[in-house]
Amino acid sequence: MTIFLYDNTFEGLLTSVFEAYSRRTFPDALLPVGEPLPLFHDEVFTVMTDEEKSGRVWRGLQKKLSSSALTCLAQCWLAEEEETALLLFRYIRKAIDAPRSIETNFSDPDVLAFSRMWKRVDWERLRLLQFVRFQKAADGTFFAAVEPEKNALPLVTGHFKDRFADQRWLIYDIKRAYGYYYDLKEVREVTFDEDSREGHLVTGLLDESVMDKDEKLFQSLWKTYFKAICIKERLNPRKHRQDMPVRYWKYITEKQTNRS
Asked: What region holds the DUF4130 domain (predicted)?
């Protein structure tokens, strides 16, 4: 078994592809540096991420795949599934080696798995667009906490920048401990170390001491409206959980029954 170790970045993945072709050795496993190695293996090669090498692979893929397929490839990296890296490696290799586009060759198991993985990531993107709930802080910043199953937050920042262009906002991924802040000019990634994280960066809910004076009223009005439009006779809990996954509920205003 041949193992490639890399830095667990998309650029590292592309560099791994370059090194595999250069060495004429293709990995059976692609693992982040620091991961425990399988008990039995023949060779371990550590990939050093290189911008020039990864760029050459990407430019090669541009000749083999459509722009939409390239977008899907980059988005699939956000799936964070156990087989993500190796599946994308195999997909890239097949795209490079094939005499024609592999994009619609769903008889190939890797192409089919790639398509399904992208759909899972895109579905999480759509859920974020639906279920992000902002809370207004005392300084005028709108704060929202999320905890998506896939690392889909980077895919929705453009939407919120356009939708709330005149408001400062912070959307923070509690699970991955990073977020994006919009300062009325640009969106930038932000992180907080454990010592500097405040309560709302842990719970996802603003404490009343940092909440805008009207926010509690707005939340109360929204809950009242939500209850008013619900028709008890037509409630379908199973369908409701399907349309609004339970993991989103703790950050959704209308589900915060303990903060009325």
From this structure: 84-254
Record the pTM: 0.81
Contacts of 133 (CB under 8 A, 6+ apart): 144, 251, 252, 253
| H or E stretch at 10 | helix 10-23
Tokens standing for 119? Answer: 């759909």
Query: Under a CB-based contact definition with an 8 Å cutoff, are residues 205 and 259 in contact?
Result: yes
197-200 long-range contacts, CB within 8 A, separation 24+:
200/143, 200/145
> Hey, what amino acid is at 217?
L
Structure tokens at 249: 């509920």
Looking at residue 198, its pLDDT comes to 61
Separation CA 189–CA 182 (nearest Å): 9
Confidence of residue 203 (pLDDT cuts 50, 70, 90): low
> pLDDT digits over 79-124, tens only?
999 999 999 999 999 999 999 999 999 999 999 999 999 999 999 9
* C-beta of residue 231 within 8 angstroms of C-beta of residue 113: no
Residue 222 has what pLDDT?
44
The secondary structure of 186-250 as a DSSP string is -EEEE---TTT--THHHHSS--GGGB-TTHHHHHHHHHHHHHHH--GGG--HHHHHHHS-GGGGG
82 C-beta neighbours (distance < 10 Å), count? 8
